[in-house]
Amino acid sequence: MQLPPKVTERAFARLAEIGASDQGQALRVAVEGGGCSGFQYEIKLDAPEDDDLVLEGQGQKVVVDQVSLPFLADAVIDFSDELIGARFVIENPNVASSCGCGTSFSM
């Protein structure tokens, strides 16, 4: 059985910081075809849909659509604040290879 992705406290804290739920928004993490390695992540603020998987913490929500869910099994959604920039990152054990841009991968 595949486990749903996990969201770190740091990612939920960042969503709280930007007031996502106050605006009725959740962090949507989706996997789409494309990118230089075959798949790419789309990460954006969006309203939850009825059939989304909803992960909640600190009063915030992260949502994943049913099509993207198998690609994100056992993944960890985190927030990274480094010199190169602050961004949401996904540690995904299903990825066979990724490219230098960090947003595209193959399975």
From TrEMBL:
Protein name in UniProt: Iron-sulfur cluster assembly accessory protein
Highest taxon, organism lineage: Bacteria
PANTHER family, A to Z: IRON-SULFUR CLUSTER ASSEMBLY 2 HOMOLOG, MITOCHONDRIAL
Organism lineage string: Bacteria, Pseudomonadati, Pseudomonadota, Alphaproteobacteria, Rhodobacterales
Domain Core, residue spans: 6-102
Pfam families assigned to the protein according to its UniProt record, in alphabetical order: Fe-S_biosyn (PF01521)
GO biological process: iron-sulfur cluster assembly
NCBIfam families registered for this protein in UniProt: iron-sulfur cluster assembly accessory protein
InterPro entries, sorted: ATAP, ATAP_core_dom, FeS_cluster_insertion_CS, HesB-like_dom_sf
GO MF annotations, alphabetized: 2 iron, 2 sulfur cluster binding; 4 iron, 4 sulfur cluster binding; iron ion binding
